[in-house]
Amino acid sequence: MSHSAPTPSHDWDRRAFIGFLAASPIAGGLPEVARRILAAPAQQQHALITEAGQALEVFDFESAAQNKMPPAHWAYVATGVDNEDTLRANRTGFQRFGLRARRLIDVSRMDLGITLFGQQFDSPVFICPTGSNKLAHAEGEVAVARAAKAKNTLQMLSTVATTSIEDAIAARGAPVWYQLYPPRDWEACKKMVKRVEAAGSTVLVLTADLNPGSDRITLDRGRRADTRKCETCHESAGGGRGGGLGDMKRKPMFDGLGPDMLPYTYPSVTWELIKKLRDTVKMRIIVKGIATREDAALAIKHGLDGVYVSNHGGRADDGGRSSIETLPEIVAEVKSRVPVLFDSGVRRGTDVVKALALGADAVGIGRPYLWGLGAFGQPGVEKVLDLIRVETITAMRHVGATSVKSIPRSAVVASGRG
């Protein structure tokens, strides 16, 4: 699929896509959330923004990005799995927690800085690893890295990024953490992680939640409706799920690994992989996708350096449990022995403060920065980070906290909603 800037010709593709959904005999069974995220941007209640500085909230970028991106590319960003219950739950889950406001506290001086594994960042909000950023903008992960540098924000790079770890670190001007989908062949995996370490990455983020597989129906519908010649970028760009070797030519982290590199997620992966990785690299290792106290305990048992609470933004399983609801039990199990990172469904500064109050040490965003990237490139990503930062400061002031470490557990309570 083309990585060039969208042109007005995409409007016809988009109208065809919406018409396809409306006319389809299965449209009535399409999940409500899928109908919403694939609906025409013109249905919104306010005008599309035309530059990053006009945005009042991150959702302004959602419609702006959708207006520019081709149907299949937008569907990749928007998709959940199956009925998309988990995707929806990630947002409604935050409604089940309320923030307790405190008054007459001096909150004139605010400090949002955090330190993770010796690296200092100006915000507890980090950039989650997401694949194929060039589908949103021609500069892809490099534009994201430059935005992260401008805001001194932690960036994680996906194994299936369309930019190499070397180029991302060069653009960031500091270490970028590497999210690992381990190739099936161990020698290929070892070669990959040694390359990552040699490039200067300091933390390996092993993703564990996609190994059983995922069924991304909204993405498949977007592919079917896209009338462009996708073979330009995808040699094996049929409409089927899972892609193929041809798609990997866009993924520089697989260069030189050979045919055994695929699939990069598979159900036979176990905790034994941790020992192999430990024996291969000196990087810190954390596991992403932890959703229960039992697996948090196993992460500690296997000597992991951190626990990453996530359900892949509703893109892994469709069990319908939000990531924010899983956070308290995992924090209780970890008992501050290692850092706890969190993502999935974060859109507001209040979401960030709720997660921090529940025990997260850092909070990640995925789709919001992709919306900013798709709409306006690097300036869009920077503005998304600015908006969430301002909202986070406001929410912290209302709970009486002047630093991330001073946000008390008592700041968040069950709201009875959701």
- Give the number of DSSP strands: 12
**What coarse outline follows from CA principal-axis ratios?**
globular
**Strand order, sheet with most strands:** 4-11-10-9-8-7-6-5
CATH class category name: Alpha Beta
Q: What is the assigned CATH homologous superfamily?
A: Aldolase class I
What fraction of residues sit in β-strands? Answer: 5-15%
Classify the fold: give the CATH topology.
TIM Barrel
User: What is the SS-derived class?
Assistant: alpha/beta
Low-confidence stretches: 1-34, 237-246
In CATH terms, what is the architecture? Alpha-Beta Barrel
| N to C succession of SSEs | HHHHHEEEEHEHEHEHHEHEHEHEHHE
Seen as an oligomer or otherwise, the chain set is single chain
* Arithmetic mean of pLDDT: 88
Biggest β-sheet: count, sense, barrel?
8 strands, parallel
What Rg is obtained from the alpha carbons, in whole angstroms? 21 Å
Instruction: Give the total of domains.
Output: 1
Helix content: 25-40%
Distance between the termini: 39 Å
Alpha plus pi helix count: 15
